[in-house]
Amino acid sequence: MAKEEYGAKDLAVLEGLDAVRKRPGMYIGTTDSQGLMHCLWEIIDNSVDEALAGFCDDIVVTLHTDGSIEVADNGRGIPVDKEPKTGLSGVEVVLTKLHAGAKFGNSSYNAVGGLHGVGSSVVNALSSRLDVEVDRDGLTHHMAFHQGHPGVYTDADPAHPSPDSPFKRTRKNRPTELEITGKVPARRTGTRIRYWADPEIFNSTAEFSYEQLIDRVRQTSFLVPGLKITVIDENVPETGDAAVDEMREVDGADMAAHVREDDVRPSDGSADSAATVAQTAAGDAGDAAVPSGVAVAKADAATHTHARVEEFLHTGGVKDFVDFLSHGEAVSDIWRIQGEDTYEEETQAVGENGELHARKVTRTCGVDIALRWVNGYDTVMRSFVNIIETPGGGMHVDGLMNSITRQVRKTVEANARRLKVNLKDSHMRIERDDIMAGLVAVVTVRIAEPQFQGQTKDVLGTAQVKPIVTRMADRQFGEMISGSKRGYKEQSARVLEKIVGEMHARVQSRKAKEVTRRKNALESASMPPKLSDCQPGNDDVAELFIVEGDSALGTAKAARNSGFQALLPIRGKILNVQKASITQMLSNKECAAIIQVVGAGSGQSFDIEQSRYHKVIMMTDADVDGAHIRILLLTLFYRYMRPLIEHGYVYAAVPPLHRIALAGSHKGEFIYTYSDDELAGKLADLDRRHISYNPDIQRYKGLGEMDADQLADTTMDPRTRMLRRIRMEDAAEASEIFSLLMGDDVPPRKAFIVENADDFDRSKIDT
């Protein structure tokens, strides 16, 4: 074999934004719908950062009919003067240079959300066309880009720009002069970016989600009080209704109003008059020139009478957010914890010559928390750093909950007699779960250069934030819960009664479980006779396989490792517990056997720590009936053993569909495939590589058709098997889906099937 040479000539150097186009996943995660939405968040967040800095109060997001998206703001505008090191305009630096912008220094921004992402330059690189307009110094400046490269487009109709128009690229290493396209009042500033996502980058399944956009915009309007965000969707088909869509949640109220055409269009219907009306709405009446962007977008909303328009403006901040998230009868008013404090942090600072050096800086941490209790058991906790959501919580949430737990316990002990709490009983101690039942809270902090744990950036890791939040909550929440703060005595009494009631219910539930639970969870005599249990002593790795049918059970017994793998057969499709009562569920042999074998109880009394197995694996046939059985099992787990799913204990086995027996020099080797498409691709690959195989491909109709070695290698042996973990990202949404698809209300389910029949994807039924 010839020796391969490897030298510097083999190295490829990608300059500028070419690296982004080569490896887009490194910058936006994926090139599917998630990556498509991530690009939009980057542009919106830059405008929101201007609002956080106090220079912007109006953002307009327009979804054009040609698939492009425009984001306009009335912030300071991207700098248009020359950047001294590159000789390029600020606009070109921001949109063509990675890791370039004011947020890397310490002068222009304090607390921002843009640092969380990848920046406008990456969006530019992944767009087939991007146009930017900046209002500064009394002028409108314009620049265009094609796949990240600056240049000039020649549009046949300037009013309708297109990425397919002829494009002349600026010569390499030559600055592109900003084009002056008009004049504006000297005090008007702002930035408008319109871009077309590049179909060469994003895959065919990438779809824009209007619902995600609205949720994100609504969330941002809560987090930045006084910031108005308007979403204009020009893609809504005409219906003959002249009303513009609902204008929701203005001034902190869930107010819906229908704005008719006569309310926004002048009597003469002229375009100039329509623009004047739009200017007046934006506070710019009387301006001599009307640049594109905010004013034009508003004018378009007036002339496109069927465009979907939604506005969001909240002045109450996180207080309005908690009110929006609250469902059910309120136990207390919305309580607010606010304040600022400072901390020291060592960071890398940018010097005058661009070099980095370590130095200690004093940071300011702003805290704004709103919370209330409602009747119910669910907890709604949303946390943010600047405008970045932290679904996993972090130091700010830990600081708050530590304080709340300590202050509630302290107050309960001080009022033990009134609350009927026996302090001598060690079980009567307030736990965090008692406090969080019915709690609705929004926790926000604003800090410069936040640190996150891990690559997902969903947990705040800046340790100095925790003691700051704890001190503020100790002082302010302590006064509220103790009733010493004026106006809080009655509210605190109701909150404490609810928390103590949760504690009593938990204690009574535990006592009831201890009475009814078997003396020994591993005592096989109390187990169903059809259970083939594993050997005791392997609790941390014990696995329970729920097997479909007795035929598969026989093979599974020979294939399993009896040291840590247990088998429980079920006969066909179990009871649909979504339609059945608790009594019916408990009287069903299959459901009762599963609950008994897991050994952790059911419903409110379920205790995940008592589960006999750390993996519960549904092993059913790879067909429609098997998928149906898995759904029925998941319904049982979701309704009566939900912590199993929440803690990641529930899995679905993934058995193969086909077995390819190789021939020739590879005789005795086998390849398993898991779908018809994978089989076709694998056979084509074998043909291309001239590897012979038995043309009689074995198609498994069920688990019982496999012998023990095959079942072990493909489905049961931890070294070679493939499992699919069942997750529950949003319990509320999951509950609605289960109620719709598995409940006894037939008309909504029929309507769902009819509406979604055209979009049916067979792969989605395999949970």
Automatic annotation (TrEMBL):
EC number: 5.6.2.2
Biased composition (Basic and acidic residues): 509-521
InterPro entries, per database record: DNA_gyrase_B_C, HATPase_C_sf, HATPase_dom, Ribosomal_Su5_D2-typ_SF, Ribsml_uS5_D2-typ_fold_subgr, Topo_IIA, Topo_IIA-like_dom_sf, Topo_IIA_B
An annotated Gene Ontology molecular function: ATP binding
Record's catalysed reaction(s): ATP-dependent breakage, passage and rejoining of double-stranded DNA
Span list, region Disordered: 509-534
Keyword tags: ATP-binding, DNA-binding, Isomerase, Magnesium, Metal-binding, Nucleotide-binding, Topoisomerase
Superkingdom field: Bacteria
Listed GO biological process terms: DNA topological change
Cofactor: Mg(2+)
Annotated ranges, domain Toprim: 542-656
Family that this chain belongs to: Belongs to the type II topoisomerase GyrB family.
UniProt name for this protein: DNA topoisomerase (ATP-hydrolyzing)
Native source organism of the sequence: Bifidobacterium platyrrhinorum
